[in-house]
Amino acid sequence: MTIEFDESLVTGNETIDAQHKELIERIAKLITCCEQNRGKLEAIKVLDFLSDYVEYHFSAEEKLQEEAEYPGIAEHKEKHAEFKQAVKELYEMLEEVEGPTEEFVNAVKKNVLDWLLVHIKGFDCSVASYINMKSDPNMI
After folding, report:
1. Are 57 and 30 in contact (CB under 8 A)?
2. N or C, where is the chain less crowded by C-beta within 10 Å?
3. Rounded to whole angstroms, what are the CA distances from 26 to 2, 7, 51, 53?
4. All structural domains of the chain
5. CA distance 116 to 122
6. Does residue 24 contact residue 5 with C-beta atoms inside 8 Å?
7. Which residues contact 76 (CB under 8 A, 6 or more apart)?
8. Residue 5 scores a pLDDT above 70
9. Using H for helix, E for strand and C for coil, what is the string for 15-26?
10. Do the beta carbons of residue 23 and residue 50 sit within 8 Å?
């Protein structure tokens, strides 16, 4: 399975866009690792990086929202918590088996990849629009 960062995911914030690109690349790496049966240890390593990077990225996004006084920040933080829970559940799935199963790969695709794509196109692009309009009222 191939997934790449494309124009539909651009928020206009270079830092956030670069982080989204990195997240998508890492999720693709996790899926590839699992589909190629590279084993549980390799999947855990990629999942560890993904988990740490998500913390870093969500913190950066939330800081931008706080600075911009984004009115939807509480809901956005709830969505981030949902994603973190999905990653935690992936760890739990891996603990129970010898290696990544088809069920695990499907969970990564649905609960991580699909979630992230929808989140970026919806929530993150809305935040970016709000910040852009706030910084340049002529955009309204």
Report:
1. no
2. C
3. 12, 18, 10, 9
4. 13-139 (1.20.120.50)
5. 10
6. yes
7. 61, 62, 65, 70, 123, 127
8. yes
9. HHHHHHHHHHHH
10. yes
- Give SS3 for 134: helix
Query: Three-state DSSP class for 85?
Result: helix
Burial class (CB in 10 A: 0-12, 13-18, 19+), 116: buried
CA 88 to CA 55: how far, in whole Å? 12
pTM of the model: 0.84
Site of tokens 């340049």:
136
pLDDT band per the 50, 70, 90 thresholds, residue 50: confident
